[in-house]
């Protein structure tokens, strides 16, 4: 059942911020107070009709929603089976789904009287989306980013700087997403009164997983109505890539009561799930554990610490995953499959060359799974893919990988 606030009851937390055994609230007293302020503000905001009219207006006239659902006919034909449909989040202003929750988070920060938003970023997409929303609403923005990702995703770093955002390079550890989260959190701890922590996915302590899912649920609500209108029926499969899991939960939420729809999250298998440290297939290879203030499936190393991870897509290389996904896996509500770096690159090129759509490397994981699955299913079946973002940010990197083959 979809509750009044737009999320299906199956993915709502209890009063302790738990989804089944996953998620949870933060223990540290100062942080707990700050999180409670965010949670109270969120619950109040979503009851306010003024917020809803402001959000509706921004999503329509600033982001360009609704994003279309597109029938990828040539890609489908090439796979020789089911019809593939793309929910075109890549067409949003700033090029990905992240603007949906960044607008919500910055509206909330402003409502709470904060001067500044702080966050981590992996591929830089969350950083750009947050810097955009902060510029729009006149708040300062501070983004922490691993130096490995800064080198790989430099166009997004330039964008953030142009938008007036302070980019903090993080060089500790593997210098990617997880370290950026740690660094951003430390900075936030020193300025709890003036700053709002704007997490970039359905991860972290309560209320973030629920709140980010709430802001992303627009994707699924639109997509379900659009595909029904287009095809007269529900899709057989809906799929999305899973880093933290925000674009996936945003799509999946609207289909959780549809027994005929198979829900599939696609994780990055990197160089293979059997190569330790060279994948980020958290659901496939993780164990129940804790990371950064919440419980979820997590990849741990021999010392019981979150392990080094890898994916060709910077936005997916995180050793944890959202608590809703962890719980959906255990409840059998959704299943989780993998795509390797190599499959991702194949899908990236296939979509570019057959449809003229250059996807984000993150999104290409979902496309890779859809292509594999389409080949197995009859032509009367339909697969709906969340095309979470566009690949402009990845083109130089792909060129270095595939240069000779292009
Ligand atoms: C950040 C990002 C992702 C991964 O984040 P989720 O929270 O798992 O959605 C996926 N696709 C794109 C384009 C991104 O920018």
Please outline the helices and strands.
Layout: E1 18-19, E2 22-23, H1 29-45, H2 49-63, E3 69-71, H3 73-79, E4 83-88, H4 98-111, E5 116-121, H5 125-137, E6 140-146, H6 147-152, H7 154-162, E7 166-170, H8 177-189, E8 195-197, H9 208-231, E9 237-241, H10 246-252, E10 262-270, H11 282-285, E11 287-291, E12 294-298, H12 323-331, E13 335-340, H13 341-355, H14 361-376, E14 382-387, H15 395-402
The chain binds pyridoxal-5'-phosphate.
Pyridoxal-5'-phosphate binds next to α5, α10 and α14.
What does this structure look like?
With 406 residues, the chain is α/β, with parallel strands linked by helices. It has 2 domains: 17-60 and 97-209, Rossmann fold (3-Layer(aba) Sandwich); 64-95 and 218-405, Rossmann fold (3-Layer(aba) Sandwich). It contains 15 helices and 14 strands. The chain has helices spanning 29-45, 49-63, 73-79, 98-111, 125-137, 147-152, 154-162, 177-189, 208-231, 246-252, 282-285, 323-331, 341-355, 361-376, 395-402, and strands at 18-19, 22-23, 69-71, 83-88, 116-121, 140-146, 166-170, 195-197, 237-241, 262-270, 287-291, 294-298, 335-340, 382-387. It has a 6-stranded mixed beta sheet, with helices on both faces. A 4-stranded parallel beta sheet has the order 7-6-5-8, sandwiched between helices. A two-stranded antiparallel ribbon has the order 1-2. Strand 9, helix 10 and strand 10 form a beta-alpha-beta unit. Helix 3 (73-79) packs across helix 13, helix 9 packs across helix 10 (246-252) and helix 13 (341-355) crosses helix 14 (361-376). The longest helix is centred in the middle third of the chain and has 24 residues, at 208-231. The model has no long low-confidence stretch (mean pLDDT 95). Residues 96, 98, 123, 125-126, 201, 241-248, 315-316, 360, 362-363, 388-389 line the site of pyridoxal-5'-phosphate.
């Amino acid at each position: 059942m979809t509750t009044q606030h737009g999320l299906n009851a199956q993915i709502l937390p209890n009063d302790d911020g738990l989804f089944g055994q996953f998620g949870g609230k933060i223990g540290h007293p100062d942080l707990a107070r700050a999180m409670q302020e965010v949670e109270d503000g969120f619950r109040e905001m979503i009851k306010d009709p003024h917020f809803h009219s402001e959000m509706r207006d921004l999503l329509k006239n600033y982001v360009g929603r609704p994003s279309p659902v597109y029938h990828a006919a040539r890609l489908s034909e090439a796979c020789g089976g089911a019809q593939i449909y793309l929910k075109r989040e890549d067409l949003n202003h700033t090029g990905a789904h992240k603007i949906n929750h960044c607008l919500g988070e910055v509206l909330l920060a402003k409502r709470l009287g904060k001067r500044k938003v702080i966050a981590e970023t992996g591929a830089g997409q969350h950083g750009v989306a947050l810097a955009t929303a902060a510029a729009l609403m006149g708040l300062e923005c501070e983004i922490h980013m691993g130096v490995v990702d800064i080198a790989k995703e430099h166009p997004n770093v330039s964008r953030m700087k142009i938008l007036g955002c302070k980019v903090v390079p993080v060089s500790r550890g593997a210098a990617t997403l997880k370290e950026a989260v740690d660094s951003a959190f430390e900075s936030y701890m020193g300025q709890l009164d003036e700053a709002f922590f704007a997490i970039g996915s359905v991860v972290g302590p309560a209320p973030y997983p629920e709140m980010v899912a709430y802001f992303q649920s627009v994707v699924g609500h639109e997509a379900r109505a659009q595909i029904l209108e287009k095809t007269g029926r529900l899709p057989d499969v809906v799929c999305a890539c899973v880093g933290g899991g925000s674009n996936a939960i945003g799509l999946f939420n609207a289909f959780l009561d549809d027994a005929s729809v198979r829900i599939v999250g696609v994780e990055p298998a990197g160089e293979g799930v059997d190569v330790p440290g060279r994948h980020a297939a958290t659901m496939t290879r993780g164990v129940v554990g804790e990371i950064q203030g919440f419980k979820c499936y997590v990849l741990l190393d021999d010392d019981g610490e979150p392990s080094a991870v890898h994916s060709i897509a910077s936005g997916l290389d995180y050793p944890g995953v959202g608590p809703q996904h962890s719980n959906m896996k255990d409840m059998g509500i959704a299943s989780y499959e993998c795509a390797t770096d190599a499959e991702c690159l194949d899908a990236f090129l296939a979509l570019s060359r057959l449809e003229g759509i250059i996807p984000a490397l993150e999104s290409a994981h979902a496309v890779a799974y859809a292509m594999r699955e389409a080949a197995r299913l009859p032509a009367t079946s339909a697969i709906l893919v969340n095309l979470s973002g566009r690949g402009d940010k990845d083109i130089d990197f792909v060129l270095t990988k595939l240069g000779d083959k292009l």
